[in-house]
Amino acid sequence: MDLTLLDAAAMRRLNRRATGRRGVTDVIAYAMPQPDGSLLGDVYICPSIAGDEELVRLAVHGTLHVLGYDHPEGAGRTRSAMWRRQERYVRRLLHRA
Which CATH superfamily is domain 2-93 in? Predict the structure, then answer.
């Protein structure tokens, strides 16, 4: 998996190309299934809109998307199974068991 940090202008352009949405976003992830069944992926993060803890959260979030996890939009997002898994990993990575 590749993790790339982009400035706001580059992330804005990628967001427009990838999703058709205008404006900067914090993270975009792409999964690339391989013929042998393995999985590769790219995660793009814009650190200018996130602090240190948020960078960890975005890296975990993007990685989970690459691995096939998803969440609903809107209010249910932070109550989803993916979000709960994400927060467990963030706590572990930040040593806050």
Answer: Metalloproteases ("zincins"), catalytic domain (3.40.390.30)
